[in-house]
Design brief:
By secondary structure, the chain is mainly alpha-helical. It has one domain. The chain is about 60% helix and about 0% strand. It starts with a helix and ends in a 15-residue tail after the last helix. Pathway: Protein modification; protein glycosylation. One of its GO terms (biological process) is protein O-linked glycosylation. It is found in: Endomembrane system.
Length: about 260
């Protein structure tokens, strides 16, 4: 059912047609990009569930059967993400393998990853954020090292990705936030650590976990509005001044007073 929504929105990006949706734009933009790079021309109507794709090249957006293409590829990444996360947390190979096999044979995960949906994209960034956070925690004994900076930055990137797909991604922001507060509390209680060094730790987390995700999240919308420059079904949700900037709108290039 949701393929009729998100597949259609992917087509809107390919055709540069403006639309409105309750979710942030990243997931649909990635679906549209995957379709564009794989040769989909954005002409399939997506009118109702169950319509046959016929000659339309939809394989880049949807992974069918054994073809791991975009959504299916991101869904398959959950297995190594789970393996690495559990391995870091438990230091137990059997536990990590068990977590990986549970996801490999999870019918819901397999099914969701076969279709043009936001769910595999969202889960990819959610689990990526958790893995990055755990990896960063393991580098706590090497603060400000290259690996420490890398995993801290990747945590911020994945936070932006999760929130940019669906607002439910804010839950992983909460998780990382609580982990960061606990980490900083421990550092503050370390009497061998100077206040200057504590300030550096605080600044690093502000830059990587607040400033970086906000910058990326804002950039998603900048790309969204830059790409969708033609009149479409979402015009009516915005002001007349905004509509005057859309090609094909009745108000295009008309001088609209404040």
């Amino acid at each position: 059912w949701d393929e009729t929504h998100f597949g259609k929105m992917g087509s809107y990006y390919i055709n540069r047609t403006f639309f409105f949706d309750v979710h942030p734009p990243l997931g649909k933009m990635l679906i549209g990009l995957a379709g564009y790079l794989s040769g989909y021309d954005g002409t399939f109507p997506f009118q109702k569930p169950g319509d046959r794709y016929e000659h339309h090249n939809y394989m880049g957006m949807r992974g069918v059967r054994l073809c791991s293409l975009f959504c299916a590829f991101l869904g398959s990444c959950l297995v190594p993400f789970a393996y690495l996360t559990v391995l870091e947390l438990s230091k137990s190979l059997p536990a990590a393998l068990l977590a990986a096999f549970i996801l490999i044979f999870d019918t819901g995960c397999i099914t969701l990853s076969q279709y043009i949906l936001l769910d595999p994209i969202l889960m990819f960034f959610l689990m990526g954020a958790v893995l990055s956070m755990v990896k960063c925690n393991t580098c706590a004994d090497r603060p400000f090292s290259t690996s420490w900076w890398f995993w801290l930055s990747m945590t911020g990137v994945n936070l932006a990705g999760a929130t940019g797909v669906k607002f439910v991604g804010l839950f992983v922001v909460l998780l990382v936030g609580l982990n960061t507060i606990c980490d900083l509390w421990d550092l503050l209680g370390n009497l061998s650590l100077s206040l200057v060094m504590f300030g550096k730790h605080l600044l690093a987390r502000v830059l990587c976990l607040i400033v970086l995700p906000l910058a990326l999240y804002t950039a998603m919308f900048a790309v969204h509005f830059a790409v969708l420059n033609k009149s479409g079904p979402g015009d009516g949700f915005f002001s007349s001044a905004f509509q005057s900037q859309l090609i094909g709108n009745n108000l295009h290039n008309v001088s609209v007073p404040e």
